[in-house]
Write a structure and sequence with these properties.
The protein is α/β, with parallel strands linked by helices. Helix content is 45%, strand content 17%. The strands form 2 sheets. The protein has an 8-stranded parallel sheet, sandwiched between helices. A 6-stranded parallel sheet has the order 11-10-9-12-13-14, with helices on both faces.
Amino acid sequence: MFTTLKTIDRNDIAVTSRRDKGFSVGMISAGELYGGVEEFIASLCRHLKENTAIRPVVVLLEKGELYERLRNAGVVIHFVPLRHKYDILQASKIAAILREENVSIIHSHGYKGTLLGALAARRLGIPLIKTEHGASEPLHGWDGVKLALNYRIDRVTTSLFVESLVYITRDLLIQKGLTGRQKTLVIHNGIPPVDDLTRDDTLFEPGKFNVGIVGRLTPVKGHDILFKAVRRARTWRDIRVHVIGSGHLLESLEKSVTELNLNGQVKFLGFKRDVGHYMAGLDCLAMPSLNEGLPYTLLEAMHQGLPIVASAVGGMKEVLVPNETALLFKPGDVAALSDQLDRLCGDRQLRLRLGGAARQVARESFSIEKMANEYMLSYRDLIPLERSGLQ
């Protein structure tokens, strides 16, 4: 049975923000990679710490890039390593940490964070809110079996223990569906203001059309689709592709580049901490993904006014308007992507128009302030009055 999708009134947000006397929220996540989930946690925690009375306390199960970024930002962070994948006994340790930190609500991310967060929330008698960041990537064989098990554990835990369920796009809500008992809402991702960045022309070959693709080197991101589309394009000799990200497909993608006779035109740059500065030198961002939530790379490109060509899937289809804020194509359609690259390469006015329109939409609808305010209101809805500081 579906619950009614909750909407957020902006006037309620403003009133809540003014009256807020502060409380602590505990964030729980694995933290082993650095992608959209980790960027969400880092940016939201920094904003809450620096601009609101809400105090974020983060529990991570692994030390990685997210741990370092939170530590450098001065966010309270605790590391609780798991002895094995489903080490639910660590929930008691997490609960003790969050009790000591006087946390009033737990915000979980991912199946590990939700499982341990649910057990800790039960021990503490406090509410649990969860954000659904994306759909599961298709896997086969033993990996597929493990993924199915993880998904089942996550669904059961969510159904039994999560009190408020947040989806980052309406498309994701439709894909995953509602569980029947939670408050359910959609809160789009948002990012901090992006300053105008100076293009470093030393990084790029003069007179060429520089296309960027940012993300993990996995099948769902569609790198091979982009490479094939470049080779098919009429303007292929003028196109340079900058691949930012790391992953297990590096060797096979390098082989594909050689087979397509694109050596010297495709650069594999690995993981970059400051993607924004590199993106400032691009002429176009390509996002040929087969499935997506609402990527932070997309939002950063929009804030920068960078022209975007993207597959019409997930959150990208939801927030981008064809031929107004981006050029879209059917996922997996090499010919369509090739044609769109030719259009952008040969029409500077089109690039300026698309980029300008995307920047305006991003600043109006996808700011960190808007996102954080909506989460603050969702926290407030769940916390009992006596714990919230509002008397």
